[in-house]
What does this fold into?
Amino acid sequence: MSGFGDPRVAELLREARTHPSYAVQQRVGRSLAECAEGLRAAAGRRVVRVAVLSSFTIDPLAAPFRIALLERDVLPDLYFGPYGQFERDIRAEESGLHAFAPDVCYLHLTIDAVVPGAAARDLGEAAVARAAEDLGELMRAFRRRSTADLVVANFVGGARFPYRTTRDPEAAAIQRLNDALRETAASVTGCHVLDFDSLASYHGRAAVADARLRHIARMELGQTILPMLATQLAAHVLALRGLGRKCVVVDLDNTLWGGIVGEDGPSGIQLGPEYPGSAFVEFQNDLLALRRRGILLAVASKNDRADGLEVIDRHPAMVLRRDAFAAMRIDWQDKPRNLAAIAAELGIGVDSLVFIDDSPAERELMRTMLPAVLTPEWPSDPVRFSEALRALPDFEVAALTAEDLARPEMYAAERRREELQRRMGSEEDYLARLEMVVDVGEAEPDELPRVAQLMQKTNQFNLTTRRRTLSEIERLHRATDARIYVLKNEDAFGDNGLVGVAIVRVVGGAARPVWEIDSLLMSCRALGRTIERFFVDHLVREAHAAGAVRVVGEYVPTPKNDLVRTFYADAGFAGEEDGRWVVDPGAHQARELPWLRVRTRSDRRQNVPR
Amino acid sequence: MSATERAGDPIEARVERVFREVFEDPALVVGPSTTAADIPRWDSLEHINLIMALEAEFAVEFTSVEVTTMSRVGDLYPILRGKLSQR
It folds into this structure.
């Protein structure tokens, strides 16, 4: 959280944090836009191109949105469609929107842009159905010209008159329109709904629009709701680009409970149904809710280990017990060092961590020593802790997959595997005892969201690091000159789910086809057990069966994928220049892997038992 | 400079200070005849930012008519004086 370590940007962000007024945000936003070019080198791949289209003046959204992303070390390149031109921007082949080539496009329309006569609230059944169809057609038109993810805002509902006591049919009509919008979005690839109606309810509809601004400046969104919409849009963008965070590291004293266990003793801390203990219980429940969504929890506390564990294991009001935490560092080491160790232990990047600590000094130290960790401002009053946690947009994913939900259990299983490895004599004994099963074959349509997720997030075992959006992946899936392979893995300790992806392009003529491995990646949870070698051998076998005369692999070096520098060499490919590696599929020697039980897709279709 | 000290300054000086902050130009000079034509960044969006900054500085609220009919800085002084004296 340092604006890429640039002191001017850090200062601007600090100003926006300490003076969160509309005027200051707008000014800071403009200054940040001017600094943007200078940050490009430091940003590396943490850049995202976002286009914003609307049926009203939405330019003021740029400032809070830029601030929200730069606070997370993500550099935004923004395009705002010209006033009143959203249709043209989408439909014209050579519009400003398509020339900009966004990664994500946000479309925010008001109801009167979609339903003629909406101002007079003529929202009958037919008008709603027509509006839903028109929106669907607009989304499909977008999809025909762009592979970017599309995020569409829904419509603010509720009764026109706040104190109305009878049912409002117009409100019901907007509800139906929102339902229809959700269905339509689900039918277009890579199209997502931003639930603006829900955001408006959460913050109060009065916060949405300022009548004065609406009429004078055609600004449908007022100064109260703008930063909140910016955060919501940031949540979508972070999720779609795999820039969310996977693990929350919390302090113990005065963070998970009131008081200091080392001084007050385990029965002297505040945790339970009475104030202020009740605030800490609610906060722990919110952390547990995150864990149920697949976010890992960890502890970093300066305490005697026995004191901390005494409360965690035995305090009657403690919600988070030892097994809720994927890692714990309860000692007297400095916290930046402990967080780096936690990240290494969990096999995730430091930039996947969020750090929550009641001490402003610890927070400031973390921001200085480990700026890649997200260290949010934290309220001093415990009753505000839950709100502050819920206000973080960093835990969202594009599509909650089974792998996400099972992640905490997967980490527990991994610890058990490591224990087994320590106990076993030889590597081969260990591998045999794992009883690994690999399920490999061409991707099914319902697996494509997980494929997209892996392509966005995987950095280390990734040969070419091409980040493909779900829409691009769907295109490749349908193409006749490309194949998408997936690999799933389970063993005696648990099911790791879908862990490997390969995208192959078939080039050359039908007589002498060549298979080019455009992408090959694996989740780190499946590494080091010969599965990766199995995967590449399988691809070569498939190439041979399809009559290919050559298989070409590519290695594109990045700061994070040095791990795979010699992967193709080790697999028996011959190196050419430019990071290309080739092999003759007819002559390739696959490695003997007797400890792997292989299930191919055709086996599954014939119901071969496990 | 504290809020109390600022409040003691003449209206013209406080207005000029707000303009300097909004347009980020510490050397900006505004007078009764200054209009949008004199300040290149003063477009319709900046006008809204300016209005909100003035309302925050003087703790007043402009009517929609005042916001849309205001074109010279000189229009501001009597409006502000009127609102401040009503308190």
About this structure: The interface with chain A takes residues 21-22, 24, 44-45, 48-49, 52-53, 56, 64, 67-68 of chain B (CB under 8 Å). The helical segments of chain B are 3-8, 11-22, 44-58, 64-69, 73-85. The radius of gyration of chain B is 12 Å.
